[in-house]
Structure formats: structure tokens, C-alpha cells
Design a protein that fits this description.
There is one protein chain. By secondary structure, this protein is mainly alpha-helical. The chain has helices at about 5-30, 35-55, 60-85, and strands spanning about 110, 115-120. The protein has a domain at about 5-85. Strands 1-2 form a two-stranded antiparallel ribbon. A hairpin with a 6-residue loop joins β1 (about 110) and β2 (about 115-120).
Length: about 140
């Protein structure tokens, strides 16, 4: 038996044992006049521990199933990503048409070094970073 499975079963058993102990202590204190509130608290705590211990017995199988499902989904995602990476480019008749470059407007200035069009208020070229001459 793997150690994680054994630990999972032991956790459930330990919760049940403590739950029964709290139930017995709760019943004992409920019978006394002074310990009524303590007995009520111990009874509630015992019921919760017994219930959680009983439900913990199937945790390992549930966790194993969830891990298997997660691994399957990850394998499918990896296969889909690989298929998308290897797919051919657009066929020529469906290839996107590139947008034409914007026409320079009357308010632009051109860089004397690289010829890049810049806004009229620019002090430096947007492409090469060289200072622009003062506007005319």
C-alpha cells in the first residue's frame, strides 16, 4: 500500500476515534449540571469529527480520479497546441490583406537623417531619435 493511501485512511480513522471520544465526553458532561454547555460543545464537535472521518475514507480514490482527469485534459491541450502550431498558413485566397501605410498629412515634418514623417510639434524623430530642425 502506498504511504499516501495509508495516511489518508489513518486520517479518517483518527477523526472517527476523536469524534467518538468527544461524543462520550459530551454525553458525560451533559449529565452533570455544571458541564451542560461544555457537554453540548463536545457533542457537536464529536458529531462533526465522526462525519468528517467517515467522509475522508474515500478521499484518496477521489483525488486519484481527479488527477487522472487533469492529466488527460493537459495531454489533450498539449496535443491541440501542437496541432495548431503545425498547421499551414492561410491559403492565398484567404490571406489577410495588409493595410496601406498612412499617407503623410500636411502637418508632418520629415527627419533629415532617416526621412521618417513626424508630427509638427515633435522635437525629435520618432524613428531614429535625432533632433528635428525647427518648424518652418
Amino acid at each position: 500500500m502506498p504511504s499516501s493511501r495509508l495516511l489518508g485512511k489513518m486520517a479518517g480513522i483518527i477523526r472517527i476515534v476523536f469524534g467518538v471520544l468527544f461524543l462520550l465526553a459530551g454525553i458525560f458532561f451533559l449529565l452533570t449540571i455544571f458541564g451542560f454547555l461544555l457537554g453540548l460543545i463536545l457533542l457537536i464537535l464529536g458529531i462533526i469529527l465522526v462525519a468528517s472521518g467517515a467522509s475522508a475514507r474515500g478521499d484518496n480514490e477521489r483525488i486519484t480520479r481527479q488527477q487522472e482527469q487533469t492529466n488527460l485534459l493537459l495531454q489533450q491541450q498539449i496535443a491541440l497546441s501542437a496541432a495548431q502550431a503545425n498547421r499551414a498558413a492561410y491559403p492565398p485566397q484567404y490571406a489577410p490583406i495588409p493595410a496601406p501605410p498612412p499617407a503623410p498629412s500636411a502637418g508632418e515634418r520629415f527627419c533629415p537623417v532617416c526621412g521618417q514623417g513626424n508630427l509638427r510639434a515633435s522635437a525629435f524623430c520618432a524613428k531614429c531619435g535625432k533632433p528635428l530642425p525647427p518648424p518652418p
